[in-house]
Design brief:
This protein has about 210 residues and is α+β, with helices and mostly antiparallel strands. It has helices at about 70-85, 105-115, 130-135, 140-150, 155-165, 175-180, 195-205, and strands at about 5, 30-40, 50, 60, 65, 90-95, 100-105, 120-125. The protein has two domains: about 5-125, no CATH class; about 135-205, no CATH class. It has a five-stranded mixed β-sheet. Strands 3-2-4 form a three-stranded antiparallel β-sheet. It starts with a strand and ends with a helix.
């Protein structure tokens, strides 16, 4: 059985967990999903984290790896424990001759990609955007910038760290906008910071 795990956030850079012993190296030709920094994380002191966001996300080719487990239930448990969440927050798709079982998935891109890669099971963290609920205002670039600017220093530091540690393949309006804020740590940012700042400026003009 070939079980794939999808990733686009801290799974790719926070090492040292038991989880890492049970999967192979990350590859960077996964399905294209709409991703954005639109979830407020309590465990990261209010920092915005990456989630699949059908309404506000940018199309992104995400990463993936092969689980070393032979049973889907074990791979699902690995990811659930790593993310410290419930089974309801683990997206799953099973592809088998008896049909397809789909749970919490953006159906078409994952299914088409999984068939092409000849995979049997795909799992991922299926947390959703909670920005409007937590910030008590609709999601927008202006609302995001205002929210992050109001975080205490520790929260703002966590927000900046999460953004500059996010994989280079994740390029979204929120990342572009926050990377040009005066408090953003330029030395910690990626070498492409100046390019992303120019893109952010163009995005704001266009919108």
């Amino acid at each position: 059985m070939r079980i794939a795990i999808l990733g686009w956030g801290s799974l790719l850079w926070e090492r040292g967990h038991e989880f890492d012993k049970w999967h192979g190296p990350w590859k960077y030709d996964g399905p294209i999903l709409n991703i954005e920094f639109s979830r407020i994380s309590e465990s990261r002191m209010g920092a915005l984290t990456l989630v699949i966001d059908p309404d506000h996300g940018s199309p992104t080719t995400v990463a993936w790896c092969i689980s070393r487990r032979q049973k889907a239930e074990e791979a699902i448990c690995d990811l659930r424990c790593r993310e410290r969440t419930t089974i309801e927050n683990i997206g799953q798709v099973f592809i088998a001759s008896r049909g397809e079982k789909k749970i919490n998935i953006p159906k078409d891109p994952i299914l088409a990609w999984a068939r092409k890669k000849k995979l049997d099971v795909i799992v991922w963290t299926a947390l959703r955007s909670n920005f409007a609920e937590k910030a008590r205002k609709p999601f927008s670039l202006e609302a995001v910038i205002s929210y992050v600017n109001m975080l205490p220093p520790e929260g703002k530091a966590n927000a900046a760290e999460y953004i500059w540690r996010a994989p280079n393949f994740v390029q979204t309006p929120v990342r572009f906008a926050l990377q040009q804020e005066p408090w953003f740590p330029i030395r910690a940012a990626s070498p492409s910071l100046h390019r992303t700042r120019r893109k952010a400026a163009r995005f704001r003009v266009a919108h």
